What does this fold into?
Amino acid sequence: MSLTQTHGHAADHHDDHGPAKGIARWLTTTNHKDIGTMYLVFSLVMFLLGGAMALVIRAELFVPGMQLVDPGFFNTMTTVHALIMVFGAVMPATVGLANWMIPLQVGAPDMALPRMNNFSFWLLVAAFSLLILSLFMPGGGPAAGWTLYPPLVLQTGDALPLAIFAIHLAGASSIMGAINIIVTIMNMRTPGMTLLKMPLFVWTWLITAYLLIAVMPVFAGAVTMLLTDHFFGTTFFAAAGGGDPVLYQHIFWFFGHPEVYIMILPAFGIVSEIIPTFSRKPLFGYDAMVYATASIAFLSFIVWAHHMFTVGMPLAGTMFFMLSTMLIAVPTGVKVFNWTATMWRGSLTFETPMLFALAFLFLFTIGGFSGLMMAIAPVDFQYHDTYFIVAHFHYVLVPGAVFAIMAGVYFWLPKWTGHMYDERLAKFHFWMSAIFVNVLFFPQHFLGLAGMPRRIPDYSTQFADWNMVSSIGAFGFGLSQLLFVYIVWQCARGGQKASAEVWDGARVQGLEWTVPSPAPYHTFDEAPVVK
Amino acid sequence: MKMVKRAFVAALAWVGASSPAMAAWSDLNLRVGVTELSREIYGLHMLILWVCVAIAAAVFGVMIYSIATFRKSKGAVPATFEHNTKAEIVWTVIPVIILVAMAVPAAKTLVKIDDTRGSELTVKVTGYQWKWQYEYVDQGVSFFSTLARTSDEARQLDSGIAPGSVENYLLEVDNPLVVPVGRKVRVLITANDVIHAWWVPDFGMKKDAIPGFINEMWFRADEPGTYRGQCAELCGRDHGFMPVVVEVMPQAEFDAWLEAQKAARQAAAAPAAQTAALAPKVDQVATLRVANAE
It folds into this structure.
């Protein structure tokens, strides 16, 4: 009896008990590493699903004329592709990285609220089950664009409530994740790690989490108003009842603009970890990076109407949103200059994470330039709702956010699995992705400038050549990602053993490199010391 | 599988049919257009484009130099500096100056775009799923403008008609909007069902057509001709199939066209006007109008 008691006592206080066995491990886990892995796997599945939808779009646009799908189904594809990529792929991927890395980087044993952590993951699965289910409803899936503008969105059939509930659940999941991240960072940093000693990835996520808490409820409110307009006779967005369709756009973009920073700030954080590591030199202007991130977050709340310059705002409104939008170029510029200065007089090597980070640096900057062009309101009257916009946001989201996420995965994969991935294959994956992503998206600048509107299933023959090039790029890029799946799977299964430090430039980069590879199931049971 | 094969065959046909001359300049860049505003917008576009290219050349130049020079494989030893206040001030201030320099001309153009005063013709444009209605305000002329039948037949799923064989595929309508050259035309834009956007690239502007609200914009086309655009706001299933076509003609031709339209409408309305029951109502309305005016 006493022996059993002793044993029970030991199990409570020592860190050598492993995960539960079988499926129960994943359903009931409260371990930040397990949950991080689940988020990342989920986001990879969604990335492939959303990508498949993108290929339906690009296949139909390969040549002029309608060959494959009905125009209504085409609209469903553009809508659901975007919803899945934004809420199912990019956001969960950065949450997955946060779950894995924030406790390791701040020296905490786990996330502050582990059960809520589990709940927020499984809520996301429920959300996307609903969204995918909505595709099979009478009247077809949601087809009004991911922005769900009324009155068009109110013409959706039975898919509408499903899509809206999916957004509610995904939003609740995001808010819980954000609360968890804030509490972890605020309360569980190891002694000695002051705020301005935190790794940049932790900083960018802290700010992102505040953005999430600020805007997800706004979005939930907007879509709930759609719901009541549709089912309960309210007229928030119907002029006939005293409402205003443009009101929805204001509310949506008040959420929507911070949302784009929710997707890109963690990417900034990842890149800010990788470039110093492979330059073997500390990050240039750490404080400036933190302040620039905070400035971008602040500005993101006062620029929203630049997404809707053509709705007919008064001159003063258009002027304000043009000028505030242009201002964002300043802190964003500071970031790009600081990353460049980090490489200056460094000692660079070019492993796959660095290659992806460099591609991010070049291609995100191109997306930033087109963003600056679009800020100029009179010119945006031409660019608005054309493929120029499509090119812009795909540059900041694909070689921007997605490349940074992939850089982060390659960077930390050895820490997670204890194995090195196949560097040769990974470099091949990089070059395929980097080349095809440009073949895919660069010609869309031309298409937009030449006058091709976005979200059309068929086009006039003058747009044919570049559409074909773009579609070829799309299939090349899509197929390259299967290679990524294989490399990750292979690395999880085995491979050359990784050291604790993994990268020889990682010596000063953060606490995650002080624990063994793979990181044990429980880390930092005793708080590490930070000088 | 059948669909994939079909797409493949269509692709081959397209490659075979299209001329080898790839992409003229006009297929790569914004159009200069035919109005004062469109030319100013084009100028702003080129200005900001070259500013971006210049900054890109400098920034990418430094990046590429760093990547090429500071390589471990070349024996580069990392420096240890972590910041440089002077440099940081410089690269914060310079962008601010560039932005101000950009904002000034942009704001000027914006003011000009906003000024719809002194228009010589007012046209009301109403978006429907999926066609446009044009109404010459106070002229009693209005009509619908829908996708031309040739395009509509060719754009059906598996129509078997090659888009290349249709003239102005997807950019042709049955009844174009007709306006006089060199006159300031004020366009009032609204919609009847969902949001659309009326856009003619050569006029430099697009504006949303919002049900229940009226937006306005203006243009003054300097050259006669046919100008084509499309609906630019997702408006449902056939969003891609409601083009905008505007014919700009000399004033005399326009006047003749408008008179012909009026005459045609009067001829069509004549039998209806003879219906005795309607006549008193028309009188009543007229009296009311007079009363209001007084």
In short: Chain B has two domains: 36-114, 121-270. Chain B touches chain A through 107 residues (CB under 8 Å).
